[in-house]
Specification:
Order of helices and strands: EHHEHEEHEEEEEEEEEHHEEH
Largest sheet: 7 strands, mixed
Strand order of the largest sheet: 2-1-3-13-5-14-11
Number of strands: 15
Helix content: 25-40%
Radius of gyration: 16 Å
Number of helices: 7
CATH class: Alpha Beta
Distance between the termini: 36 Å
Oligomer: single chain
CATH topology: Spore Coat Polysaccharide Biosynthesis Protein SpsA, Chain A
């Protein structure tokens, strides 16, 4: 299983300071999990992710993850492997539905949460591991949209269905677009109970976010 991450940190700082780097050291006994880290990255997340999907030595199972994530689950490999053998693409949080113009997996309008019955998953939040729990709804659950903080799938599915991350999106909306492309290709998305803590609560604001939102709406005719 490849764990794919793009970070602005250099190798030393990633392994000694980042949540993901420290987490991977904690479970370094797990030889079946192979970190593929793009250090000092200045490219878009989709560019890094696509490069690893198409790499000749890519593993059969792929995890796309942010560097500010604590892996609270020391059975991470077993749980993710079971998940991607049960459904096509999994995440830790998502929305069972999608509405036109939706600006994130959780919001139907900017900063307006969708109704609780449509949400699924559980994520910890905080600067340290085992952070305060945000419970969105029961999981596993079939979804239309998944949070890009962690996405996992099988490489053969992406290649067979010709699903990739769209490189017109540098960071914001790459996950929304990927989920829609996957659903359009007939892939099954679902949340799965995997324990993580995310240091960020998101950043749905600013010129970069707005620019990507406009590109996303234009692409999907909304």
């Amino acid at each position: 299983m490849d764990l794919i991450c793009a970070t602005r940190l250099n190798s030393h700082d990633f392994w000694t300071r980042s949540a993901l780097g420290l987490s991977l050291q904690r479970i370094s006994h797990e030889r079946r999990l192979r970190p593929r880290i793009a250090f000092e990255n200045r490219r878009s997340l989709p560019a890094v992710y696509n490069e690893n999907i198409d790499a000749a030595d890519a593993s059969p199972q792929l995890v796309f993850i942010h560097d500010d994530v604590w892996l609270d689950d020391h059975f991470f490999f077993e749980h993710v492997s079971a998940a991607v053998n049960a459904v096509d693409i999994i995440g830790v949080a998502g929305n069972r539905r999608r509405v036109p113009g939706q600006p994130s997996w959780a919001f139907t309008k900017p900063r307006e949460w969708d109704a609780a019955e449509h949400l699924s998953g559980t994520v910890g939040h905080g600067q340290q591991a085992f952070g305060k729990i945000s419970h969105f709804g029961s999981a596993p659950a079939s979804c239309e949209l998944l949070d890009g903080v962690l996405l996992a799938t099988r490489r053969d599915l992406l290649r067979e269905r010709q699903v990739r991350f769209d490189e017109r999106f540098d960071f914001h909306f790459y996950d929304m677009d990927f989920c829609r492309s996957a659903r359009q290709a007939g892939l099954w998305l679902a949340t799965w109970p995997i324990a993580i803590t995310h240091q960020s609560s998101g950043n749905a604001a600013g010129a970069a976010w707005q620019g990507n939102y406009e590109k996303y709406l234009a692409k999907w005719g909304e």
